[in-house]
Amino acid sequence: xxxxxxxxxxxxFVAVLxxxxxxxxxxxxxxxTTVRTSLNTLVSxxxxxxxxxxxxxxFGAKSLQTREQLLTENEALKQKQLLQSEQxxxxxxxxxxxxxxxxxxxxxxKQPNRKIIAQILSVHSNPYSHQVxxxxxxxxxxxxxxxxxxxxxVVGQLTKVGSxxxxxxxxxxxxxxxxxxxxxxxxxxxxxxxxxxxxxxLSHVPHSLDxxxxxxxxxxxxxxxxxxxxxxxxxxxINRDEGSPFAQVxxxxxxxxxxxxxxxxxxxxxxxxxxxx
Length: 277
Known about the structure:
Blueprint (H helix, E strand, L loop, with lengths): L1 H27 L2 H58 L2 H11 L13 E12 L2 E6 L12 E3 L4 E8 L4 E5 L6 E6 L5 E9 L2 E7 L10 E4 L11 E9 L7 E7 L8 E5 L2 H8 L1
Antiparallel strand pairs: 1-2, 1-12, 2-5, 3-4, 3-12, 4-5, 6-7, 6-9, 7-8, 8-11, 9-10, 10-11
């Protein structure tokens, strides 16, 4: 028992003596700095390893929060882009019309169309009918005949309006017709659906009509359904058979009708006047 006590006291004495030597050496010599740096280098991986579970947990929590935030911001940006594209679609038309309107400085400025974003709920597509259902209805102020566009161009128009949903007749439907004009030369014509999601035709085109492949067709504003200046289609094929009374002119819709998800419903000017009254 006594021998064990001596051994413990001796070990304590040696430990205290070594501690004093190290303290003095660390204060008055430069070699201890190198030793301390080496020890820190050796211990650093252990510190990172001990902190790894916390970092993993923090990263996971931040990733989930960031993902939710990104999804929310992404949806908001998509809606903002959709609304802005409605204005961009008219820039080419308006820039050309600006020269003609400069002489009419006394007239009132054209007010921007009222609009609302809608989301597609279901698609009804077959060779005889091209229609989609959207999540907007009469409670949102919609009515039959309103124009519908996407971020690229004209999609179609409302045909049936319920309280909370509405049916959109696509421009490629065989019963749909869109009054248009050729952006290059202002010639007016009509685009009709053929039952093909990626092709429409120009109706009753005379052989003498100045139309070329690549011509951009925009809404003419006639009929009162579609506001003037929205892109509709691009001419892709022209067949001038002298044996036929009319030339066969085909075009491709500007709107991506096979992959639309968000749409913009436009109010007609008459509707805005009535609602304001």
